Amino acid sequence: MSTAPRYSRLSPADRREQILAVARDLFADRPYASVSTAQIADAAGVRRGLLNHYFGTKRALYLEVVRDMVRVPSPPVPEQDAGRTLAEVWDEVLGGWLTMVERNAGLWLAAMRDPDLDEILDAARDGSIRNILKIAGAPATNRNLALGRMFSATAETATVEWLGRGRLDRAAVHDLLSRALFVLVRELKETP
């Protein structure tokens, strides 16, 4: 039997991250309604009052978990290095994104259906689109932003077909999105 104390001292930032990680795992495995703050607190080894201190409500914690999940990496996605082709850069970016979606499948699919998350998801889409434009060397014109939104909608739908409906597998989604990115880049470089 372990003699380690149930509760351990962490800095406020570390404790907050710990609670987010536990909540992310629980929300990824089970629907929002079936996860209680008591379960989150117990799994994190803290009291429920500490959850309220850091996040206020279960819904606020959930929104932060989703915000954290879809946060666009900083620094932005890898740029094309000398010796790396654009195809290699896209492959790395897509692979990382698909891994994030797969690890958080339940949470991801729930987020796609939750209208309260539109603002969070829109900010993530905009960040991703700006990264695509940067890698492609294309300006952020209204046309290019709209084309990026179209690609984003395709990517999200492909993940639902893969993880939610089982009609595609990861390799098919990766291949589809990779080819769609090259079509997008060609369109981004064309002047209307």
Describe the structure.
The chain folds into two domains: 12-68, Homeodomain-like (Arc Repressor Mutant, subunit A), CATH 1.10.10; 72-189. Helices cover 71% and strands 0% of the residues. It is built from nine helices and no strands. The longest helix has 23 residues, at 142-164. The model is unreliable at 1-5 (pLDDT under 50).
SSE inventory with pairings:
Elements: H1 12-29, H2 37-44, H3 48-55, H4 58-70, H5 86-103, H6 105-113, H7 118-136, H8 142-164, H9 170-189
Helix pairs in contact: 1-2, 1-4, 1-6, 3-4, 5-9, 7-8, 8-9
What is the rounded Rg? Answer: 19 Å
The computed structural class is mainly alpha
- As residue ranges, the low-confidence spans are 1-5
Total DSSP E strands: 0
Taken in chain order, the helices and strands follow as HHHHHHHHH
Q: Which word captures the global form? A: elongated
The termini sit apart by 70 Å
Mean pLDDT: 87
Summarize the structure.
Helix content is 71%, strand content 0%. It has nine helices and no strands.
What features would you highlight for this structure?
mainly alpha; Arc Repressor Mutant, subunit A; 2 domains
